[in-house]
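During the first year of the project, the team set up a workflow for recording each protein of interest as an amino acid sequence followed immediately by a discrete structure-token representation. This format lets reviewers and collaborators read both layers of information side by side without switching files. As required by the reporting guidelines, we include two representative entries from the current panel. The first entry is reproduced here exactly as it appears in our internal archive.
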Amino acid sequence: MSHNYALEELNRETTFGGAGIEADDRDIPLIDMSNFAQRREEISEQLWQAATQIGFFQLTNHGISEQEISSAFSEAKRFFELPEATKAQFPRPKGVNAGWESRSQIRPSTGTKDQKESFQITRYHMENLWPSQQLLPFFQANTEYFEQRCWQLGMKVLSCFADKLGFDRDFFSNAHDPQSSDYQSTLRLLHYFPTQGVTEQGKVWRAGAHTDFDCLTLLFQHPGHGGLQVCPGKEADSKRWTNIPPLANVVTCNIGDMLMRWSDDKLVSNLHRVRQPKIDEYCGSRHSVAFFCQANKSQIIQGPEKRYQPISAEDFLNQRIQANFMDKER
């Protein structure tokens, strides 16, 4: 059995081009990661319930400090404040999830470019894509450090899913080995453009409805910079969108298509989007930082029940990246 996620996403997203219904009566699970070693079984159960029911959850006491998060946002701000012509010196290569892009990602749900720019950091793909030490002192070192901290947290969460799926506890850590040259997990710095003066609500999107195509996404939101919404698949017909609160020092997580396939569809990858602010809301720049846990290129993805045919992580991601970016060469 094969699974065409690109086609499935297109079918699902096309339904979500409009505004839909905004409802905040669904609780997004808030999971306390403190005393992890002693509470592993309890935390694993909470993560499993959240991942199988909603596909979204938020983490507190996760081990990444307030200062580390603040520093990551500062680095992102430094980069995005560079002149457009300077940022253009570090363009995202075709078919590679690294470097800078602006308004190049097109969602099937909207057919228009996401109103954002981003800088992707993927080890072993950054040749000629780092701003120099003279241009942005310590930018590379600081962002690489934060990428490592995100990897550690992501592997902790994935180790809980490994337990539940019957894999060895370090299964996903080995599959996302940062020492391997085919490592492809990505830290993404994001800047959504200001919307002052935009009056066509519901027609322009900061990020159209989509699913992520990794294993697990860790998202750091800036307090006051809202707009992220989720719509679980089981409620697709109702088009009910729930706001994800942008809480300080809380990590918002969601399951991606890769892990959904790897779990034989037990863990749920769900639609989410970033809507435009309403006229009476904060309409300035929105910043966020995301880390995508993406298995090494050579890693073969197949669940314990072998529901789907095996596929390499490289082939899986290439299919998904090409479906979501506009390349001039294509």
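The second entry, processed by the same pipeline in the following quarter, appears below.
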Amino acid sequence: MRRRGAGRSAASAIAALLLGGALAGCGIAPPATTPTATTVTTPGAGASEAPSSPGPSSCTAWLAAQQRGEGRLYRVDAATSQVRIHVFRAGRLAKVGHNHVIGVERLTGQVFVPTDGIAGAGVELAFRLDDLAIDKPEWRAPLGPEFASTPSASDVAGTRANLLRAVDVERFPVIAMRSTAVAGAFPVLALKLAVNWHGQTRLLDVPVRVVRPAGDAGGSVLRTQGALVLRQSDFGITPFSILGGLLAIQDELTVDVDVAAVPAVACD
């Protein structure tokens, strides 16, 4: 009995050592294979296939529509916009690890709002993966007990290293999103959003709430808020897992989006 107990203790100690090192800051594990831009995987529930390229920007067309008086073009204000990606621990040893909060601090893009109705409305957003920030205490604190742990500097560094390796940041440095269709009525809209990540593009249905400026003053701010779920497997990424699945992260990543945009007179 002592030997069995000692064996279990040794196994627990080994797991703890793994979790306390670079793997404790588990972001996303390296994919089993590295898909090319034309690779197609089977999407999970809530996602559908789309062309592997998101296509050219609509900004020039939106700017021309604004010049014709058909609507207003807005540029994303990175300083007052907020995107938070939540990564959730899984497996029987999950309690030893951490949930994670990843923040987008340099969001770019544009939004077009028609003068009347929703016909022609659209949004384009993008950010660089190597610009992401991870597990800032002020992001974790409001989320309650499941995010109450405080990852160490080495945990955060491990999470970042695993994340960038998993998504092959040198080949695929950007996540880009653009609407392909808009339904509903202001202020509540349903976007068909094409998300391009890791050389794959998937279509997601995303509900958003849009608060339009009262007038056309130069400093007027358009605000768009929504949430979506990204499944790593839909984009050819294998969720992190070690020790036969005793430590893992969930396939689903939840994303909270709060985009502030100001009137624009040119495309970037």
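For the second entry, the following points were noted during internal review. Residues 189 and 208 are 5 Å apart (CA to CA). The mean pLDDT is 81. Both points are flagged for discussion at the upcoming steering committee meeting.
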